Amino acid sequence: MTGEAPPARAQSTAQRTDPRSFLVRGLTMLGQLAVPIALAMVTIFDDGEFAERLLYFLPLVLAVVGANFAIAYLRWLRLTYTTGAEDIRVESGIVSRAARSVPYERIQDVSLEQKFIPRLLGLVEVKFETGAGGADDLKLAYLSEAQGEALRRLVRARREDEAAQTPGEDAAPSAVADEAGEVLFAMDGRRLLTLGLFEFSLAAVAVLFGATQQFEFLLPFDFWDFDEWRHVLAGPGAWLAGLGFAAQVIGAVIASLSLIALGFATGLVRTLLRDWGFVLEKTARGFRRRRGLFTRTDVVMPVHRVQAVELGTGWLRYRFGWHGLKFVSLAQDAGSLSHVVAPLAQLDEIDPIIRAAGFAPPAADLEWHRASRNYRFDSAALEGGFFALAAIPVAVFAPAPFVLIPLALAGMAIASSLYGWQFHRHALSAKQIFARRGWFSPRTQLASRVKLHSVEIAQGPIAQRRGYATLHLGLAGGALAIPGIPLARARELRGAIIESIAAKDFSQLA
Amino acid sequence: MDEVIPASPVPAQPQAVSAHDDGEALTSLHPNHVSALRVEATLVSIPFIVGALVLEGAALLPPAVIIVPVVLLALAVILRVPLRRHHARGYAMSADRLRVVRGLLFRHDTVVPFGRVQHIDVSQGPIERFFGLATLTLHTAGTHNASVRLPGLGEQLARDMREEIRSHIKRETL
């Protein structure tokens, strides 16, 4: 290893990643191997003769593990990075070599991520986001925490050098001032707990429900055998046994309750793992978000990279005034398109974040427009019609009362579509465009007019006859569409937006 | 038809409606574009006609029940539809933007300002090359409309348009 953190200036010798990263790879790989080995154990050693089979089995496992460690070591040996004057270069590959160079000015963000094992060893994964999208981004796994931080500071310093050359830029802030930031949003334990409860996972319940049926042989009793439950309850609650049918009902309730409890537990655990210690700061270089219990991530996002902000909520949390805020940007955030900057917050906490990103929350006197009334009728008719059609086969094949189900659904779809129409609205301010949908859990998108890339008016066959259109706005890193607005309004919006876009060239955006 | 939600004590600011948005005449594509579309339609219909002939040969149904409708449909697709598609397409190029209109059933009317074009392609397929046509593709950084295609231009025109648009893309300062 080439010693401690590299000095912030002119480092030009090729460096290797931290030698411990090889250890991490080995450990991760062992973790991945654990499941197949366990499965193999179950199938191979099912019928005894353990020691005899172990003789054949063990060398094989050792060979696989050894080969993997050897490959991991060679990889580590052959991966070097160089921080030059203009770019950062990574050379990798055991047999076929690959060299990649990324100029500093193309690096949008440098994010540090710590998964569980690297975190124990004090290592970080450094990711250089270039806007090329997830897989193509340059990654260095793993560096020591100090090295990662130094590299991040170096990239920023180099970028500022370049920025300083162009006149009119602010003086480059020093690397130290860079780190100290004003906390915009943080989550305490109470807030985390609230979020966890709202994140009740129906999917987890479904999976568990399936699992109880699939793997019930692993349980010491039959999960769905209510007599068994009654038997389990027979100790202190022996009186239950005498109740016959009532006991079965109680058994069913307990089975359902335990599934629901598991759903809550899944939501809680997932939230705690993901959002533990959530802190969003505004630093001189942009937004900095840190979160995670075992996998700690540290993402920095320059303010000008925020293309749009999205205010969402859930149907239940909305009743308590909770909202979530996301930034839409070109860089990807752990698989999802937008960066969550406030998972659960009240509107008065969210407003300052929106302002910090250079956006303005919808003003009280903003002129909101609705979708066309023709669109309201057509979408209600289409949604209702779908369920009404579904009622036909039900009426033919199912017992008579069942036909009421699709008909009721059709009624609900029509009612919700007609009622929800008034909540679908959009507005145009001097700098921004706003789109809002949904009455059960409203979602509002705010995009900057100059940061859009194209405007399209799309009309399907029905829309052409009924005089409305969908306005698609080309947003980098996200989708923004306003459906069902009158054609004249769509043209008016497009004209106004195109004027704003054309007034500013793309290169002036950054 | 446009409904405004009355919530504002302050009167709304006037929207800048650009005059040349809709009164603007679209430029038609190259006349050879119809022929190119017809050749494409023919290539698409051949497998269906062959399939119909095979079914006809199997004599499952009375003669001509399958082949006649299929051939009539194919003729409509080859002769009539390309003409209508051609008429539905068009473009308008102004000083700082390109407008591309396309689609019969699903109409798309897209405007791309030159200031947002990332790069430009001029491509030619074998059929297009035979008819002296080319497709101009503008790539933007937006997720929707990441690439806007304008097919059926004369080859020279497509190249000229590319040069014209490229001259509008300002060089990024390095």
Question: What topology emerges from the helices and strands here?
Answer:
The complex is a heterodimer of chains A (510) and B (174).
Chain A: E1 15-16, H1 20-44, H2 50-78, E2 80-83, E3 87-92, E4 98-103, E5 109-114, H3 116-120, E6 123-129, E7 138-144, H4 145-165, H5 175-179, E8 182-186, H6 189-198, H7 202-214, H8 226-232, H9 238-241, H10 245-275, E9 279-283, E10 286-291, E11 296-301, E12 308-312, H11 315-319, E13 323-333, E14 336-345, H12 347-356, E15 369-370, H13 373-397, H14 404-420, E16 425-428, E17 432-437, E18 443-448, E19 452-459, H15 461-466, E20 468-475, E21 478-486, H16 487-502
Antiparallel strand pairs in A: 1-2, 2-3, 3-4, 5-6, 5-11, 6-7, 8-9, 9-10, 10-11, 12-13, 12-18, 13-14, 15-16, 16-17, 17-18, 19-20, 20-21
Helix pairs in contact in A: 1-2, 6-10, 7-10, 8-10, 13-14
Chain B: H1 32-58, H2 67-88, E1 90-93, E2 97-102, E3 107-113, E4 117-123, H3 126-130, E5 133-140, E6 147-154, H4 155-168
Antiparallel strand pairs in B: 1-2, 2-3, 4-5, 5-6
Task: Characterise the protein shown here.
The complex is a heterodimer of chains A (510) and B (174). Chain A has helices at 20-44, 50-78, 116-120, 145-165, 175-179, 189-198, 202-214, 226-232, 238-241, 245-275, 315-319, 347-356, 373-397, 404-420, 461-466, 487-502, and strands spanning 15-16, 80-83, 87-92, 98-103, 109-114, 123-129, 138-144, 182-186, 279-283, 286-291, 296-301, 308-312, 323-333, 336-345, 369-370, 425-428, 432-437, 443-448, 452-459, 468-475, 478-486. By secondary structure, chain A is of the alpha+beta class. In chain A, the strands form four sheets. Chain A has a seven-stranded antiparallel β-sheet. In chain A, strands 14-13-12-18-17-16-15 form a seven-stranded antiparallel β-sheet. A four-stranded antiparallel β-sheet of chain A has the order 1-2-3-4. The longest helix of chain A is centred in the middle third of the chain and has 31 residues, at 245-275. By secondary structure, chain B is of the alpha+beta class. Chain B is 39% helix and 23% strand. Chain B has helices at 32-58, 67-88, 126-130, 155-168, and strands at residues 90-93, 97-102, 107-113, 117-123, 133-140, 147-154. In chain B, the strands form two sheets. Chain B has a three-stranded antiparallel β-sheet with strand order 1-2-3. In chain B, strands 4-5-6 form a three-stranded antiparallel β-sheet. In chain B, a hairpin with a 4-residue loop joins strand 2 (97-102) and strand 3 (107-113). Chain B is elongated and about 65 Å long. Chains A and B meet through strand 15, strand 19, strand 20, strand 21 and helix 16 of A and strand 3 of B. Strand 19 (452-459) of chain A pairs antiparallel with strand 3 of chain B, so a sheet runs across the interface.
